[in-house]
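Dear colleagues,

As part of the handover before I leave the project, I'm documenting each prediction I ran so the next person doesn't have to rerun anything. This entry is a single chain, and its sequence is reproduced below.
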Amino acid sequence: MALLFEGILYKKNPKRFEQIREIAAGFSEYYIGQNIIQDDIFNMIENYVRTENMPLEWLRFPIRDPELCACTFIRSGRIFVMVNSGIPMSKQIFAAAHELYHIRCFLEEDDLELAKSGSILNASTIETGTTEEVEMEANAFAGILLVPVNALKQQMGIYQIKEKAIEMKDILTLMDIFAVPYKAMILRLLEEKMISDDRAREMIDIPFSEIQKIMKVTGKAKRWDMIPSGYEKFGSLLENLTINTEQEVLPKSRLESDWKELDRIKQLYGIK
């Protein structure tokens, strides 16, 4: 728990955290408005990159290593974003928002690190924090974007959740509304001074298996803790294969080879 507190921007660099808050708020105002994003984050990223006149390739398929949440890289003038669809949806959503920060830095601040080295997000960066400040910034950006303070206050008012007296059931209610992981929700409350450091530590130290039991009984946030199917994407590969097949622009042998390769990839990752 101590490592998590040391690995968040709010604690490590409060001044930079406030700058990231302004960046996230400005981004949200321009591209999202008053909406709560949830799993619309995927469409939002696609629309954002399109407005910047940059081609985007979405890759979403299950990777057997749950530690790998997402990665982003640039090749041949295209942004490739891969999200592991084999992890719970709340983590996929947070991972996508995290990667959006790196994409934004590349597109709007001419940060060439993404083009040079790419970005890899491991589960530990979300769960236990990080020592790299740029990753702290991306986590902070993702949290603020997915759980805007005004929407948070509004929903707490609607559900009669009182600051400084937040219980487990309240955390699950907010997770259900904002579709973020358990620890991310607690950290947002901490960042907005709605819970104390001690209370945050106490709640984060609860084994997640116990939290899942409460989810199962109440049904709250359960939908976002599930690993969904049917969301797989292979960038423009499937679309291009379909067009090439319909228009017969490639030799039959090449098309058969390409379809066979796609089937091989699907079998490799257990996709029907």
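The longest strand covers residues 68-75. The chain is about 60% helix and 10% strand.

All the best with the project,
I.
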